[in-house]
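Question:
Now give any protein.
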Amino acid sequence: MPKRLFSIFLIFITIFSFAGCSLRSPKKIEDVVKCSSNSYTCYFDGIKHDFIVELPDTNSTNAPLIIALHGYGNNASSMRLSTNLHEQANEAGICVVYVTGASNPDDAISALSWNSGIGDMSNNDVGFLVALKNYMAENFDTDSSNTFVVGFSNGAFMTHRIAVEASDEFKGVVSVAGMMPAKIWNEMNKDLSISVFQITGTKDEVIPQNLNNSASSSINPAIELVMDRYVELTKADLYATTNIGKNSVLNRYHSEASVEIWDLLIRDGYHSWPDENIAGFSINELIVDFINSCI
């Protein structure tokens, strides 16, 4: 090859390589604005989100982080007020960031939600939550290697998508009244290294269950099959079955790779964040126990 052509070739390869690296670089949260002492707005991929940061009173440097996801039609503020998850988490030295989803850009009347894999929503919420994890680590010194996603209802559906598609980015997920969307279930065919805590009420008619035969009329898999698959793919073994509260049952599994799989069935529980007075135990304290078992 002539010297001049070889030089042009090298220049082309260099430019292409840099462009390729740029395309592969993860997107970041942009235009962050502080609205009050602990609330913020930001944009990711052109979509606006709000988030509320709750830090422990003690030094939060390198602290574990919970990213809390609301249910359909709610927001970060309502999730904070209805769960108070940060109270127990902060006492344990865990940071919490409550975050608001977005509406479907293809549906002008859709409510705030998460792109869990149900429907045709195009928002890149997996990418957004990874970017939020990185933003929190860079700006609040949280531990990116010990970041968990906790969700309720539609937010819990999203945790199952995170577990399957971003298991290398998060330490664990907690699904409160969440199901596995069929689309994500069909992708669930590789070994996983992420801890999972599933909380299901026996009278929850939203979550497909073999127990109450609701799975027979659903396109989404029975939650019992989902949890069996997590146990299989993480190579975990059952180490404890415990009756807690008012005859609820908690099965706990552990793998040699230090993965925890917890499966809690709440007797007479509905599609709601469990109430301590009804369940007979604090779900927030149990979530903190799960996180501490993983770190």
Summary: The chain is about 35% helix and 25% strand. Confidence is low (pLDDT under 50) at residues 5-24. The two ends are 57 Å apart (CA to CA).
